Amino acid sequence: MNLLDVKHVTKRFGGLVANDDVSFSVERGQIVGLIGPNGAGKTTLFNCIAGYNAPTEGEIRLDGRMVHGLAPEQCARIGIARTFQVARTFTSMTACENVMVGALMLRRNTVLARSKALELLEFVGLARHAERAAGSLTVSEQRRLAVARALALEPKLLLMDEVMAGLNPSEVRDAVDVVLKIRGQGISCLIVEHVLEGIMPIADRIVVLDYGRKIADGTPAEVSRDERVIAAYLGE
Ligand SMILES: Nc1ncnc2c1ncn2[C@@H]1O[C@H](COP(=O)(O)OP(=O)(O)OP(=O)(O)O)[C@@H](O)[C@H]1O
Ligand SMILES: [Mg+2]
């Protein structure tokens, strides 16, 4: 059984069709990239998968279980964690406290939450910044902090929305290393990304959206020579 199945998902906002009959799946242990021009519906689809949007039509299952109708906290409890395209860091709290917010959703014990948070900061390469105010971290560090906070929910599937945007090439490499380490822990990753040099080399599969519709789904090599994909990107 696939870890995630998205079947015929349509999401309308009034007359606008943000996701139009989208189907794809994520197998266990895979890194799947979700790409497409601005406004293609990538974040909307994430919101449907993580319980922030209810799809207008279609169904979404994690491990065979319906996600449709669950609230974001319930999605988190069944194993779906995410980062946000616009960072939601608690800037005046320390890096450690930010990750504890995630950890405390699973266990109401601050000592355990703190040790889990420190372990995850180490995992994403932020151990030495644990006691710094999160707002004083660089953009690249704040992205990894958001990933650590999502990992504190001990997800089966991690959704990352543009965690590489605006990073320099060495920071992109750091972000790529973190994604590979996450998969190494057996966590599947679904990644929305415009930074193709970050996602293409590491993805098992790439799903391409354009104007809400899926226009391609295949290996990075297959997708990058697909004429519809090339046209969608050149037309942007
Ligand atoms: N809450 C909302 N209400 C109305 N329209 C929305 C809402 N959220 C998204 N949209 C519209 O849905 C479409 C898809 O937006 P979405 O944010 O999913 O695109 P995206 O692929 O994530 O784009 P980007 O690469 O710029 O982040 C856009 O036309 C957007 O304006
Ligand atoms: Mg988006």
Explain what you see.
- The strands form 2 sheets. A 6-stranded mixed sheet has the order 6-7-8-3-9-10, with helices on both faces. It has a 4-stranded antiparallel sheet with strand order 2-1-4-5, covered by helices on one side.
- Helix 3 (95-106) packs across helix 4 (110-123), helix 3 (95-106) packs parallel to helix 5 and helix 4 (110-123) packs across helix 5.
- It is 37% helix and 25% strand.
- A hairpin with a 2-residue loop joins strand 4 (57-62) and strand 5.
- It has helices at 42-49, 72-78, 95-106, 110-123, 139-151, 169-184, 196-199, 220-224, 227-234; strands at residues 4-13, 16-26, 31-35, 57-62, 65-66, 80-82, 157-161, 188-192, 205-210, 213-218.
- It is an alpha/beta fold.
- Bound molecules: adenosine-5'-triphosphate and magnesium ion (MG).
- Residues 42-43, 85 line the site of magnesium ion.
In short:
With 236 residues, the chain is of the alpha/beta class.
Given the helix and strand composition, which structural class is it?
A: alpha/beta
By CATH, the superfamily comes out as P-loop containing nucleotide triphosphate hydrolases
Strand order of the largest sheet: 6-7-8-3-9-10
CATH architecture verdict: 3-Layer(aba) Sandwich
Major sheet size, sense and barrel closure: 6 strands, mixed
CATH class type:
Alpha Beta
Oligomer: single chain
Number of strands: 10
Question: Helical percent range?
Answer: 25-40%
Number of domains: 1
From the alpha carbons, calculate the radius of gyration and give it in angstroms.
17 Å
Task: Give helix and strand order, one letter per element, not per position.
Answer: EEEHEEHEHHHEHEHEEHH
Gap between N and C termini: 36 Å
Which shape, going by the Cα principal axes?
Answer: globular
Q: Beta-strand percentage? A: 25-35%
Report the uncertain regions.
none
Tally of alpha and pi helices: 9
